[in-house]
Amino acid sequence: MRLGLALAFLxxxxxxxxxxxxxxLDLQMRLRLEELLEGYPGAVGMISHxxxxxxxxxxxxxxxxxxxxQRVAGGYETYLQEKERIQRTVEKARHEAIKERLxxxxxxxxxxxxxxxxxxxxxxxLAVRAQRIQAPDxxxxxxxxxxxxxxxxxxxxxxxxxxxxxxxxLRPTSNAxxxxxxxxxxxxxxxxxxxxxxxxxxxxxxxxxxxxLRLLLSRERPDGGECALMPGxxxxxxxxxxxxxEPHIPLFAQFTAHYGEARAAMLLGRMGFxxxxxxxxxxxxxxxxxxRAGLALLAxxxxxxxxxxxxTNHLELELLEALERALxxxxxxxxxxSHxxxxxxxxxxxxxxxxxxxxxxYPGYPEAxxxxxxxxxxxxxxxxxxxxxxxxxxxxxxLEEERxxxxxxxxxxxxxERERARVRAELVALEEELFQKYxxxxxxxxxxxxxxxxxxxxxxxxxxxDFYRFWSREGSLSGERVGGAVRLWGQASExxxxxxxxxxxxxxxxxxxxxxxxxxxxSAYDKRFVRTLPKTKRRRRHRGAWAKAVRTG
Length: 553
Known about the structure:
Pfam families: ABC_tran. One of its GO terms (molecular function) is ATP binding. InterPro entries: AAA+_ATPase, ABC_transporter-like_ATP-bd, ABC_transporter-like_CS, ABCF, P-loop_NTPase. Residues 170-381 form the ABC transporter domain. By secondary structure, the protein is an alpha/beta fold. It folds into five domains: 2-66, no CATH class; 78-132; 157-171 and 181-372, P-loop containing nucleotide triphosphate hydrolases (Rossmann fold, 3-Layer(aba) Sandwich), CATH 3.40.50.300; 392-442; 450-552, no CATH class. The chain is built from 19 helices and 20 strands. Strands 14-15-16-17-18-19-20 form a seven-stranded mixed sheet. A six-stranded mixed sheet has the order 9-10-11-7-12-13, with helices on both faces. Strand 3 (60-65) and strand 4 (68-73) form a beta hairpin. Helix 4 (76-105) runs antiparallel to helix 5 and helix 8 (261-270) packs across helix 10 (287-300). It is globular and about 100 Å long. It starts with a helix and ends with a helix.
């Protein structure tokens, strides 16, 4: 895209035509493009859904509606005002015309004038006059998309990363010779994400934004450091290329697997997909259709943490505004990558950026934009603790204050033993209430796909597409499935590993598992611990045997 724009500007053409020029451009390039367009000596015509670009550059707006091309002299704000004015004017004219028509049809001829025939003629004349009143045609109804994203509860601390690092090997082309270059994308990245955060991750293309999202979701393994989602946090992820969809599986089959046929049909229909398209794979769709399908998938998911990577790419203006409204109303935790300035400023409450492989936080969007343009800006630590007023919710703060009052009363030497015992009883009841509130606040029962018990350890698994998370009180593991094999990484006890293997082999139809150089095959597992037992005892007996066998690998 940048090369094409450079060639277009260097051509010196009298008329420059651009079709969605900001797609895949980072913020710095978008601002530079605006400067070039403002100073371009020739005429410029462009199709764009970037509201900030249109507002800054456009002097005349053409919009296509119901097959008619309408012209508005002025910028984007003028277009919005003119469109609203036209709608009000047409609605008022229709209302007045219909009102006058009804008045004439319901009018009663003058009874004081003699003759029935005369009154009949007057009635007919009124009807003719009513028919001659032409009400303007109604404007075509605006397509207003409806999108609602639901959330579920999470612990106070949603996710945490400590000293994360990630590098990639850049191999030379087939005709080139030389050593493989290693590029460090992230270095020493640490952060905390708290419940209710709305974080915009900003930065130039190639800075490592998508890599950080994938590390957070265990889609990739870090070279160093730790990254963990808290137990009980359910995630939803829309990547920028496939929008959370499998590219070669029919769309309806994917939705049915998640929600059942009835709900799948409702979600697809709400996003404008008709039955003939349901059975096509997403790879056959345009970019805009894939984006709509991804939003339809998102509307059915109930997740505590929503992770979006360039969600506005290929979206038309009406759907972009629907997404914006849905994100503003979303009650969960949000982490998203976007170069859409209007969306970022309206939705985000925290602003992160990646500078030279390091993660930084900005106090607000103006500071973030200044930093990306190379100007001076204040930077914060993304690992910072919650502000003190947020550490204790209001209800708990009231109870804490009441608790302090009771402690002070206990120290009053004038209290009798009976009064002292009554205060102690109140204090015990108050502390029990505080404990229950803090327990609900900081820990929620984990949501999981599978649960097993190995050697007295409860092991939980959360499965999303081809990615796995396993956890217990003795550690956690992440994994990715490729074909019939799963690669695991992380730090966990042998009991946790045994539970993970049990889930993968018994419940997920995995044939091979690789963990830190150790290879576990289902064939050996099945032969050794299942087939030698009677069918009625197989499932119950072989679990414990497999958990013990893991000790020897």
